[in-house]
């Protein structure tokens, strides 16, 4: 008999839920203040495992094997939690929830890989919720991030925003980690996050968490300048069809702001559909398309001096491409004098000093296509094996045309990136594997492409009497002989040499540009053939059931970079280069003193096959609740970063006879022969060219690049006051060792005769990653206040300041930040009779600051900026829709976030939203 009962029990628990004796609880949930449907509200059986969420119409259906009476726990951020007693399965339940302030109720995961209140986080963390996104005046959530405390951004173009924290700010920051649904969002070859290219669509963001500063103890190498964790919406929780259509215009009053583009439309269309088929299976599909005329980088500052194109023959504008080809024309003047000694009165006064002349450059507008396009699509399937175990598979694909800034401007045309994941997870553990596949498309490298175009229509010097420079010299002498003043003679000489030039948009220009940009770098063109891939597998387990006296979390990670650029980005001519990483981590946490003090520590082991020694890093933190909802936090982190694949192995053309290079000594010696033909700093080479004194030449001391590390300390205080005010203040201090920066150097392959430096065509320039020798310190402080003013009014303000000292002046360190930032927000999420109106405003102020672009592209002062964004919205409650009118940078005062990057004006827009969560 006992065997029969046991077999019955086994069959009962193994059979599908549909065959068990189940009862169904149905109901609807509403907002008591507006009578709107309350979506994505958690409905759980008290003291049970069954649970569900309300759908986009507030409806829920919960299956249970429990008997009546049953108590349901109904909860959601933004509402007071409620317990509801169920006395009957036949009647539908109507539940009304009271709105509540969200201040102090936010929970985060990324700070410790466990769910905890944001107030009690051991490190500084900022957060953006889906509700904040839906009420923001910004066009997308990537733009919202620049208003967070401690965050810097560099906007290279519409669609490409680079994020960092605590001062280190540049396009394509390889020391910032962007994680989307557990997947590292970096480009496999370039190693920096891809911005919004394959991240979540606008409608699918559930939550964004921003960890300021070092975070490698939990999230691995390259998290030195911060980590952003993005979570997509669960299709079991967020269901239904949602549509977001934004139509706008930018480049208004362009002539008043030195903007070459006429007023043009801005489009952004997003759609999301999610459906729970039954209690076990759900799916979602997302798509977003953005199109606009991009902002244009049009900085005409002269990199070779203070003169303009009308006054300096050696003019090389920041955003004028082709002028990097520069030569001292004295040898041509001397040859002319030797052929005709009667020219001595004209030529001899000139050759007493160098006379450098640059080729004529092309402005960015009309040269790079400024039609920005981004398209991304995502799909996800989820299957609940049981209430605590879920399997999912997802895929995201993105393509488009965008521009980003590095050692020159790069236009990514038709790039393609895919990211695909499989995962099995429970409430205690997960196993995840994913891959990222990239295709660089037809990438146009602005600087060298323009130089090659110039050389194609007329070579600089053909070795005889022909070429652009001999013609320039002839035109200069002829004009001077005719009595023309020197400056006007140089202008006439340029016009003479430029006869037959491939002008922007001409058939000749287009033919040459197409030919060069479709020919791989390895074959004499400027085309990248990057097809690199990333493969990752990881697992994590929470040992809370096995270890009762403390919290223990442990995990392992394996990663493979398959670098495949066909010798256009890496030295991988013969076959792809494989770089592997292995890591393991453990986190320990314990609450003591009546749970007032939380002590936690983390340890991580990492090995990268490019480097012989592994790295062990750690983090320790204390969080003390001094009084209720008042938390003092202290943390120490020893963080590290293996040099990225770019910093170690890059071998990229960035100009005529100019390369961007990794710091591996193998690369420097084998490819560039530094061991035979030593490099000199480019600054000293320039001095030698100007003075002729070889004593000013300074050799560049190099060694194999090593991992960099930082010891970071932070002290902070966060408090919730009267359930209406949140206050957060912090200070940090960091010490960096083996700091990785960049240096510009040059050598003369084939000869050690330093006289070769006098001729630009005989030496090669390099922008090299290397470790600085001395300690570098960074420090800063920040404060923020959020106030719930009642009646759905909320205001926020934050202030932060970051600084660097002991920096190596021979390095470009990418510490590009003003002395301080001020961000303010004020808005109302619902006012009027039925709270159908809402509005939000934001202000960002930055004083002017000095900005240096890696690779020698440019440096200079970024002007101060005050940017105001605003929107007002109206809900069409019965139509479950809304209309929003707003503008970013509403005053249309153009500003830039970095030298050589575009000037950003206003976008005025109207948005229609349907069924937005």
TrEMBL record:
Membrane topology: Multi-pass membrane protein
A single cellular component GO annotation: cell outer membrane
Annotated protein name in UniProt: TonB-dependent receptor plug domain-containing protein
Main localization of the protein described in the UniProt heading: membrane
The keyword Transmembrane is assigned to this record: yes
SUPFAM superfamilies: Carboxypeptidase regulatory domain-like, Porins
Organism: Pedobacter steynii
One Pfam family, short name: CarbopepD_reg_2
TM region(s), chain numbering: none
Keywords: Cell outer membrane, Membrane, Signal, Transmembrane, Transmembrane beta strand, Transport
Subcellular location: Cell outer membrane
Highest taxon above the source species: Bacteria
MF-aspect GO terms: siderophore uptake transmembrane transporter activity
Record family assignment: Belongs to the TonB-dependent receptor family.
InterPro entries associated with the record: CarboxyPept-like_regulatory (IPR008969), Plug_dom (IPR012910), Plug_dom_sf (IPR037066), TonB-dep_rcpt-like (IPR039426)
Annotated ranges, domain TonB-dependent receptor plug: 118-227
Gene Ontology BP terms: siderophore transmembrane transport
